[in-house]
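Hi C.,

You asked whether I'd gotten around to modeling the 202-residue construct. I have! Everything is below, sequence then structure, no commentary in between.
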Amino acid sequence: MNLKQFQKALGQLGSWRQFAFLLALAERGFANFALFAELTRPADADRFRQTLDQGWMMLLQPERQSDVFRLLTRLETVRPDPVEHDFYGTGPALEAYLLLEQALLCHVNAERPRAEEGAAIAMGTVVTFVEFTEGEGLDENALIKLLDNHELVKIEQTFQKALISELQVTRKPGERFVAHLRSLAKNEGVSNLGLEVPERWQ
């Protein structure tokens, strides 16, 4: 699947598939949020985890929808504040938060396409991390080469394409499929930055 095909496939995700795609991206970013919360307010990671789990339950049992506005209000209380917490980990945590927020918003306005924005947020997390950790002093060409060949960037690309492929061939989100998708997204507790979720939330 080339870039053009991938972008087209993102735009065609609808209904539960877009919701599932965004949930999976948020799941992959959970370790980034948990590591931030461990340094600030650990209880925030518990609340994020509970909200994310509720999202997966909504995907699995659409007939038993939760109060999405209540979940969004609850989630808002754990939104990372870059002004209050002026260190690098705030960014990846905020981006994980935004992915979960976008997933829940699929149920507020189902007609709005959100998958492409979510894919860009998740990839942006990886790109910014590579620039922050390895890009200092590089000129534009060297930085582009670094990003094009970096393992984390390739892993994120592969993961997002795998999600699209799984969603395209699945008729409905049954129990086995949702369990498989969650496992794929959890990646044994390792985030898209290669960071492991703290033991407390494993």
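If it helps when you're writing up: The mean pLDDT is 93.

Thanks,
B.
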